[in-house]
Design goal:
With about 425 residues, this protein is of the alpha+beta class. The chain has four domains: about 5-125, no CATH class; about 150-245, Beta Barrel (Thrombin, subunit H), CATH 2.40.10; about 260-380, Beta Barrel (Thrombin, subunit H); about 395-415, no CATH class. It contains 13 helices and 18 strands. A six-stranded antiparallel barrel has the order 12-13-14-17-16-15. A six-stranded antiparallel beta barrel has the order 3-4-5-10-9-8. The protein has a two-stranded antiparallel sheet with strand order 6-7. Strand 6 and strand 7 (about 200-205) form a beta hairpin. Helix 4 (about 60-65) crosses helix 6 (about 110-125) and helix 5 (about 80-100) packs across helix 6 (about 110-125). It is globular, with a radius of gyration of 23 Å.
Length: about 425
């Protein structure tokens, strides 16, 4: 498929019937960038822009050939220059967006196609930064994330980066998440960086120490982690591995294990979901270098990436889940979480730039022998069940016994998960 045709198709898939609203958002953000400061959701995604304007006659040269200097500290360009460069990107993207709405990909210029790809990544499928356990500002198109902010911020604490000490090539392997107090789940391909199959058993590679850092603030040194102490099992058919972990001895904010969905979602096409992980750029894939320069600060830190389910498909003898949460960067080992139920639907395995990603549907493994032996539990509560409990708690809150009940609930919660 031609690249311009691809971005036109993604505009329809990502924005649906709200294309006019999104175009208004883009133009409004462009207008605001003529003021003192760019909108928060843009500032969180693109931290710095261009050092100076190029002298070329074409905007493409201005936006792509000139170096986007995201790594500067001393001598950083003037804020007005940065805003104007980003504003130009939005303005050109808006022009391409209008042509995409009219479904005339042949009229989209190369610079408009490039800017439109950035618009898709800023508004349609953003990578929202997590810093100090808090979610950064989200674009208006994804107000659903803002509505679920508390639950998302709770869930992200159970997701971490698998760090490596003693590996000859890598400092870290990928993403993993807690499925119980002492069990970590990731992909088998991620695990193979630090374990190997010796006959009938999987063992750690000599000289490598591994732990899961779940509290990696943006651009800060890792400060907390679960030590990976044993291989609980590696699945024979699915790209999945489980590890026993040991929680830190001193910790005031212990993560909450994520709840795995015991039942498939009501629909596997168009259902809102999100992914929590650490995007990594893969130069072997088809991600354009200009886009990489703009979004360089997106990589290697914890991000929440929203999207939708895109159905299922069968590969050999296994069924896999598709979604479009991760169009920028690799996030193998990350959980794919239902935005409505806050239950994990899948384990991210692979994906490509601006294309659908693949995940292991964990609800299919509810009775899997490996997960049963390891003690992985699945959540069976439906939204109706949770609403019933919420209604009962509301009624209890109106009685004179609420003070005692609240104290008891808080104590039990803190004993189970640590202080929030």
């Amino acid at each position: 498929m031609d690249r311009r045709q691809m971005v036109v198709q993604r505009v329809g898939e990502y924005f649906g019937e709200r294309v006019d609203d999104v175009l208004h958002m883009i133009r409004q953000d462009r207008q605001e960038m003529r003021g003192w400061q760019e909108p928060a959701h843009l500032r969180a995604a693109v931290r710095r822009t261009i050092r100076e304007q190029g002298g070329s006659e074409t905007v493409e040269t201005t936006l792509t050939a000139t170096t986007f200097d995201f790594g500067r500290a001393a001598g950083e360009p003037d804020r007005g220059q940065q805003r104007e460069a980003m504003g130009q990107l939005l303005e050109i993207g808006a022009n391409g967006f209008e042509k995409a709405i009219r479904k005339t990909p042949g009229d989209i210029t190369p610079e408009e196609a490039f800017a439109l790809e950035c618009v898709l990544l800023l508004y349609g499928r953003p990578a929202v930064l997590v810093s100090d356990n808090s979610l950064a500002a989200v674009p208006p198109f994804w107000n659903l994330l803002e509505d679920q902010r508390e639950d998302i911020e709770m869930a992200q604490r159970g997701v971490g980066r698998i760090e490596l000490l003693g590996h000859p090539e890598y400092d870290w392997a990928g993403t993993g998440f807690l499925v119980s107090e002492n069990l970590l789940m990731t992909t088998r391909r991620t695990a193979e960086l630090f374990i190997e199959n010796r006959g009938a058993a999987w063992q750690f590679r000599p000289g490598i120490t591994t732990w899961m850092d779940y509290r990696s603030p943006y651009q800060c040194v890792a400060s907390a982690g679960y030590r990976v102490r044993a291989v609980a099992g590696v699945h024979e058919r699915y790209d999945l591995a489980l590890f026993e972990v040991e929680r830190p001895q001193v910790n005031g904010m212990a993560p909450t294990p994520l709840a795995l969905a015991a039942l498939p979602p009501e629909r596997t096409e168009g259902r809102p979901v999100y992914l929590i992980g650490y995007p990594v750029r893969d130069a072997r894939r088809n991600e354009p270098e200009p886009v990489t320069r703009i979004f360089r600060d997106v990589y290697n830190v914890k991000r929440v990436q929203p999207g939708e389910l895109r159905g299922t498909f069968n590969f050999a003898e296994v069924q896999l889940l598709r979604h479009d949460c991760a169009p920028l960067g690799l996030t193998a080992g990350a959980p794919v979480i239902d935005l409505e139920t806050q239950q994990v639907l899948g384990l991210q395995t692979c994906g490509r730039y601006l294309e659908t990603s693949t995940a292991v549907p964990l609800y299919m493994l509810r009775d899997d022998p490996l997960l049963r032996r390891a003690g992985v539990t699945f959540a069976e509560a439906t939204p109706q069940d949770r609403q019933s409990v919420a209604d009962q708690l509301e009624r209890l809150a109106r009685t004179r016994y609420w003070g005692e009940a609240r104290s008891a609930i808080t104590s039990l919660y803190n004993r189970a998960y640590g202080n929030r």
